[in-house]
Structures are given as C-alpha cells and as structure tokens.
Amino acid sequence: MADAFTFFIYLTTMFSTVLLVKAGYSSSQGLVRILPMPLMTILGLIVLVTITGLRHEVGEDFQGYVMYFYEQPFFDDSTGFKMEPGYMFFVKLLTDLNLKVWTFFTLFGFITYSLLLLSFRDFKHLTYLGVFFFMTFGFYFFTLNGVRQGVAVAAFGLATSYSLERKLFKYIMVIVIGGLIHKSLFLFIPFYFVLHKIKFSSYIWFVLFILSVIIRVIPIENYLQLETLTGVLSDTSIDYSSFPTDELEAESGITLGYILRVLIGLFILYFYEKLTVLNPKYIPYFTLTLIGILLYNAFSHIQFFSRLTVYFTFFSIFTLSFIVDYLTKTKKFILKDSIIVFFLLLYCYSIYVGESGTSPYKFISF
Question: Max Cα separation, the chain?
C-alpha cells in the first residue's frame, strides 16, 4: 500500500509533467525550441525521467533488471540468458563506464518518454492530454516494470505516425531500433502496409466488441497451442508483459477491474464514428485502440495475448485525448470534466494498491 510520500511523488510528477508539456506547446512557449521539442516540454520530460530513474525497489521487475545490470559481464551462453542486442549494448556501455544502475533506468526512461512525446508529432496541441492518460491509465506504471517493452511500445507509437505519412524508411528504422530493445516489435512491420486500409463501420466494431466479451467466458486457452507462438515474445530472461490487471483476473475470473475496462472500451467505441467523420486522421488511432480493446476483452487472462495487447491499448491515450478535445470544443464540459476526474481517481487507486509493485516509492541512496 502507498504512503503519503508515494502519493505526493506520483501526483506531483503527473501534474507538473502535464502542465509543463501543455505550456510547452502553447502559443506563448512554442517559439522556444530545443531539438524537436519546446523548452517547457523538455522540462516536463526531465521531471518524468528523474522520478523514473532515481527510484529504488519500485516495480516488480526492479531487482531483475538490477541483477542483470551488475551480473551481465559474467554471463555466457551456458547461463541461458538471451537478451536483445540493443538492450545488451546499453547495459554493457554503462557498466564499462562504471556507472550505477540508476543511470540505466534514467536512460531507458528518457528514451521511452521522448518517444511518447514525439509520437504526438501530428497532434502537438494534445500532447499534454496524451501524457495525462499515459500516466493515469496505467501505462506509466507499466514502463516502470516492462522497461524494454515500454521502449518498444512507445516506438510503435512514433512509427505509426510515419506509417500514416507513407514514410516507409522512417517506419522501418524506428521499428528496427525498438525491436533491438524488445524483439516483439518486429511483429508490427506488416502494419505499414495494412493500417491505412482498415476502415470498419461502427456497427462492425460493435458486433466484434460483443463477440470479444462472449469469447472471454470460453476457456479458449484449452484449445490453443500457444507454445508455438510465444518464441518471439517470451524467450528472453527478463519480461514484464501484462497490461495492468489484478490477481483474480489473471486466474480467468471476471472481476470489477475487467468490467471497468470493458466499459471504458465501450465508451471509446461510442465516439468512433462521430470523431472519425469529423477528422479522418483519427481513423488509424481508433482502429489500433479498438483492436486492443477486442484483444483485452477476449484474452486478457492469457499471457501471450497480454504481451500483444499493450501495443494496441497504448493508442487509447490518443483516442481519449481526441474525445476530451472534442468535448471541450463542443462545450460539453460536464462530461469532459467527469472523464478527467474518473481517470484521476483511477490513478490514485493504482497508487494506493501499489499496482505492479510501484508503491511505496523510494529514492535511491547516493
């Protein structure tokens, strides 16, 4: 359970990062630029990276990454440890420089959250909302555990923007770089050729939504031979893959947490047709989100699918941002404010229960 200090750290980090990112992309700050981001946005990035990098014993996989960081010089083929070359490169570089493990968490936090911000390159005015939903909907806590896959997921977000611009080289380049950190990202190379072609009606999505919930109650894992599919996703030694969930759900039960996420998915689906008609650029983001929703509804209790699902559900931070922006422009402030408050409460609850081992928060000792 979280203490008052933990609440202070996570809430302060979330509010300060969101406000700084928003200020960075406001008209008054937009002219002050360093690299591809405004100065205030970079300050928000620094806040987020600092809290991520200077943590101690925070996250279920924290000790696993610490162990590999310090022990990797002694590993060879006989130990059975197989890690992606990009990940091994950074670990070896930092250890060769005699740096401590906090530099690893800081570096990977910087890479992940930079990719997150850059993935909103076509919707810069909504970046602050994306950061808000990224943190309150569980993805931030996910990156504190799935350090490698967090990089890959954020890289897919950036690659998608290049896919929609039909920039094949940049898309492949981002996928390859991210795949060298977590090779599951290589599975998404074909999406470049099909994503812009998927345009289902809201009726079809709704039918698929209902079917996905029905499938959830069928013990489908008893009929699938998943062993032949998991090689790309699970043969590395450190892996965190489950989208934020609870222990009962992992045992295939229909829990309150599952029902809540199903309702959030239905809420997003409700706005699909209305927003994609207003702005066709939203279609691919809704498509990826809805694929993730269907996968979660049907297979969230199966580890193999959980590893894939997070790549799609990540795009809910885009679609929820689109929805809030639409509600703001149409002056539906009560519904907009209700969404913000709901996700704030969800964030506080996640902090309280220590989702994925992220509470209590502790700083490292220098």
Answer: 63
